[in-house]
Amino acid sequence: DIVMTQSPDSLAVSLGERATINCKSSQSLSYSSNYKNYLAWYQQKPGQPPKLLIYWASARESGVPDRFSGGGSGTDFTLTISSLQAEDVAVYYCQQYYNTPRTFGQGTKVEIK
Amino acid sequence: EVQLVESGGGLVQPGRSLRLSCAASGFKFDDYAMHWVRQAPGKGLEWVALITWDSNNIEYADSVKGRFTISRDNAKNSLYLQMNSLRPEDTALYYCARDFDSRGLYYFDYWGQGTLVTVSS
Lengths: 113, 121
Description:
The complex is a heterodimer.
Chain A: E1 4-7, E2 10-13, E3 19-25, E4 39-44, E5 51-55, E6 59-60, E7 68-73, E8 76-81, E9 90-96, E10 103-104, E11 108-112
Parallel strand pairs in A: 2-11
Antiparallel strand pairs in A: 1-3, 3-8, 4-5, 4-9, 5-6, 7-8, 9-10, 9-11
Chain B: E1 3-7, E2 10-12, E3 18-25, E4 34-39, E5 45-51, E6 58-60, E7 68-73, E8 78-83, E9 92-99, E10 108-111, E11 115-119
Parallel strand pairs in B: 2-11
Antiparallel strand pairs in B: 1-3, 3-8, 4-5, 4-9, 5-6, 7-8, 9-10, 9-11
């Protein structure tokens, strides 16, 4: 199974400041046939289901604010919130869809400092 | 509007069975693979099972293999999870989620609100 490891487990950021979450996979998530990275990011607010933010490591889902961006390739990925807003308080998960079983990172809790 | 509505959760004793349902609307159900994902109280997300649009490919997490069965009825726009031999560690909020693709190869673009399963004596 591919192990997904996020860091940090939690972070507190001031409103308007940048938040960066890291995600590392135990094997490459990039297929040589198409060079795509099979990595998604989800946001889960308290009491709500997860919501898709980013797919293919860097493609933003429709309707997601452009302050959210994804980057990285191979085994190392990042989710960046360029200017943290109050409504961004949530737990963020990375997930690989390179193969099954689909696996998620343990989650990173983002709070306001 | 895409909607996924889970039902069937509840309190059940260890060793007993439960069947979850997920009613889909707002999209052509048989164009998409579907998944079940669970979340234990206060914990992270765990993928449980996948079924392709035509039910020809089904896969399970090792933790539920041999005990859980995923199925779908495209005529009823419904997804199911039959859970047998339940254990306390199966206690979780169970979500159904839509795959972006019919073959189940991609990310989960829509999620339901979940149904809570509690396994306890």
